[in-house]
Amino acid sequence: MARHPAGELDDADFQVVEAPRPAPADGQVLIRHLYLSLDPFIRPMMDPVRSYVPHLNPGDLMPGFGVGQVVQSRNPALPEGTHVSGRFGWQEYIVADPAALRVIDPSLAPITTAVGILGMPGATAHYGLLELGKPKPGETVVVSAATGAVGSVVGQIAKLRGCRVIGIAGGPAKCDHAVQELGFDACLDYRAAGIEERFSALTPGYVDVLFENVGGPLMDMVLRRLNAHARVVLCGAISQYDGPTSGIGVPAFEFVRQRATMTGFIISEHMAHWPGAFEELARWIREGKIRYRESIADGLRNAPAAFKGLLTGKNFGKQLVRVARENG
Ligand SMILES: NC(=O)c1ccc[n+]([C@@H]2O[C@H](COP(=O)([O-])OP(=O)(O)OC[C@H]3O[C@@H](n4cnc5c(N)ncnc54)[C@H](OP(=O)(O)O)[C@@H]3O)[C@@H](O)[C@H]2O)c1
């Protein structure tokens, strides 16, 4: 990161730095980065504000989850060729201690899933919906950024739990995908006119669970239609990350009236949930009950543009960057 962004990301917020390839010490491994995950939470980390993690400063390496392959090993537990995932950052080579890595078995699922549906976003969807949203059969679940890495999994799990699922997404292609491919009952295209009326028509029995990824006026629209004892799961507010902020113009007493709860969470504080979530999600993928989709940008130099695209809805599914080709 070259500087703190002022609002929307600019190319000058980033700089490419060339440095010698690092060498692993005894017990460590050298990893060649194959796929970098771009995740929205990195954008708020670029602002100098108090948060659940220290913010970035100019000159810091852009952080990010990644998948790679061990190319030099000084630890017999991780031989060369092993696929691993971890917090790699926006760089081509990483030196790491094995304790900081997750070993990936490429015969079980494509390696990219280790930073998508079988990685942090999948764990987020599984934990947030099931542990905080607590959906019951027949209830109405609304999820925003519905075709994205987290939202697509949330909606599909809610369907497996017997819920009626309404997605909110930008544009007809994403909405068609939500209904036809992901099996949602309906999808609200928020880029088209008359959102409030169309949303009211889609929720005659109101909303029992809101899984919120976007924030702003769209979130307020759903909050005004909560059912009694509704659960609002605050996962993210991507529409607000570039600032300025808006939304939450809903009177506090509305939550009292509906006896609703609203809970924010950060998935890295719930690591105990991850292995069980991955096991269940992997089984659902094998059984053809859950689908996922990816957008892959080519080359680390295109990471800033792809990251900007993620924050403006240009991605369609989990956004990745191919840093290097395997065996390439
Ligand atoms: N709490 C946690 O631990 C945790 C963990 C992971 C992710 N998250 C949050 O979960 C959310 C989704 O993350 P993800 O990785 O799954 O990303 P994603 O949904 O794959 O991609 C982001 C999507 O957000 C939507 N979006 C972007 N800007 C928007 C805007 N101004 N207004 C409305 N929608 C906008 C776009 O979809 P449309 O084109 O459909 O608008 C875009 O495709 C983010 O808010 C993220 O911060 C939280």
UniProtKB/TrEMBL annotation:
Gene3D superfamilies: Medium-chain alcohol dehydrogenases, catalytic domain, NAD(P)-binding Rossmann-like Domain
InterPro entries assigned: ADH-like_C, ADH_N_2, ER, GroES-like_sf, MDR_fam, NAD(P)-bd_dom_sf
Residue intervals of the Enoyl reductase (ER) domain: 7-321
Key words of the record: Oxidoreductase
Annotated Pfam families: ADH_N_2, ADH_zinc_N
SMART domains: PKS_ER
GO molecular function: oxidoreductase activity, acting on the CH-CH group of donors, NAD or NADP as acceptor
Name of the featured protein: NADP-dependent oxidoreductase
Organism: Zeimonas arvi
Taxonomic placement: Bacteria, Pseudomonadati, Pseudomonadota, Betaproteobacteria, Burkholderiales
